């Protein structure tokens, strides 16, 4: 089975991180319209004059420029918005999804629904692989903040001096944060999209 995630750079500058076993199709003459099978994290370049359209099963997702996650299963299609605004449409029914909200299309009832997103749970979909070889937590913070739209804070600045040596293979952000905090003996606290490390730190 295909367990690797794939990064796709689109001709308009948008990029997509596809979940394992997922695929993306688009014409050679790219017109900001793609066909998705499975799921992925989209980072769409802003272009007000040409909306970006994603078709997944019988659902269409329309955006101008934003970051959002799509996950399609046998029973549903879920769209979670991290930044910006997205329209989710099925036949004549549509909903507007804003930052920190998710839209869900239920294939059994053929209904669209809107609800608040549990932010860090959504990041479970964006698994990554990293190798940290005796690097400081300050460096780890920079790497993770670049890979995920999340902020990492050290309540004691000397925590950033702690070094770790570990490797993560296709791991979720939640898993990596727990392992890193345990490794350096720090306590982990979350508030929205900010993660706090609390502890004695290192010299």
Can you tell me about this structure?
- The chain is mainly beta and 203 residues long.
- It has helices spanning 119-122, 137-147, 173-184; strands at residues 6-9, 15-18, 23-25, 33-37, 39-43, 52-56, 59-63, 67-72, 76-83, 85-90, 93-98, 101-106, 111-116, 128-136, 151-154, 163-171, 187-191, 194-198.
- A hairpin with a 3-residue loop joins strand 8 (67-72) and strand 9.
- The longest helix is centred in the last third of the chain and has 12 residues, at 173-184.
- The protein is elongated and about 60 Å long.
| SS summary, helix count | 3
pLDDT under 50 segments (min length 5)? none
Cα-atom radius of gyration: 19 Å
Number of strands: 18
* Strand content range: over 45%
Q: How is the largest sheet built, in terms of strand order?
A: 1-2-5-8-9-12-13
| Strand and helix order | EEEEEEEEEEEEEHEHEEHEE
Terminal Cα span: 45 Å
Largest sheet: 7 strands, antiparallel
Please identify the structural class as seen in this structure.
mainly beta
Helix content: 10-25%
Q: Tell me, what's the shape? A: elongated
Round the mean pLDDT to the nearest integer and report it: 86
